[in-house]
Amino acid sequence: MKHLLAQNENPFEPLPSVRAALERAIDDLNRYPEFRPVSLPRTIAAWQGVEVTEVIVGTGSAGVAHDLFRGLLRPGDEVLHSNPCFDVYPMLCEMTGAESVPVPLGGDARHDLTAMAGRIGERTRLIVLCNPHNPTGTVYTWDELTAFFARVPPSAVILLDEAYVDFAPDLGAPEVAARLADWPNLVVLRTFSKSHGLAALRIGYAMARAGIVERVVPHQVPYTPGQLQLAAVQAAIAADDEVRQRIRRISHQRDRLRRELITLGWSVTPSRTNFLWITTGDPDRLELARAAFEQNGIAARFYPGQAIRLAIGDQVANDAVISALSLLP
Ligand SMILES: Cc1ncc(COP(=O)(O)O)c(C=O)c1O
Questions:
Q1: pTM attached to this predicted model
Q2: Top-level CATH class of 3-11+241-324?
Q3: Of the residues 56, 193, 201, which should be mutated to test ligand 1's pocket, given the most ligand atoms within 8 Å of the CB?
Q4: Which CATH number fits domain 16-238: 3.30.70.1070, 3.40.50.1400, 3.30.110.30, 3.40.640.10?
């Protein structure tokens, strides 16, 4: 496939400063990283304005989510999440013996918070909310979210997955420290895979009160993340202006592509991420799109009979999408 748009990746190659930092870090490849990571949590804590005791780092945010499930759940505990959602969450339920409780998205492709609140029961131990959501790209404001948080009992942890939050920084959420002060059962999960474009390095982190962090860290595999991850994170944080500029370029391409697809007769949910959720009432058209993408070397994620989830690529890839779909009846 020429155009890799199936995994919500960042289309840009590493920033020069990140590449240089990684090249320097290669000198120490014969050395083990810290047994329990200290420098990376310290770097992230200083950057985010939280205590180092409030940070968990791990192998991508999927890896951190895995450690959270291991640390916080016992077999038979219930995990509430939307359906569809990021594929890893139902998998993690299976891996930990927790019971997945999927709640269909609302008609606006957002979490159905009313239905979710109604599904909270005695065994509910974790509620996963991706904001923005994958696969639909939809968001809630902080006020809307906290109205829901107020309905969650202290026996359940709220896992707020903000993998795409840098594409939607204007939702009224306070700094993370203030969020943790107000909501003792909140975990904020982030990644360097999306806006920072470091998916291959597998760097994720979560921020939560120390009491939650202490339950999770003993379940983490020692010696990860390593010194390459630390070097890349320090350089990426220092390159904030360039990262923001790339986010603006991706968002600009996203909005252009959305307009073009609507002109071609597709329904495209307004997105606050680096991908689009493209639907049609006509399943045959979806299949035609799948064939057109295959012929043109475009990899996208198809939800059979339902939708296409398409990452925003570079201009060449986005133009390839438009021209492939332009030929459809
Ligand atoms: C909502 C959401 N959370 C987490 C992840 C995992 O990202 P990573 O493990 O690369 O940090 C993804 C990746 O697509 C995602 O869409």
A1: 0.97
A2: alpha beta
A3: 193
A4: 3.40.640.10
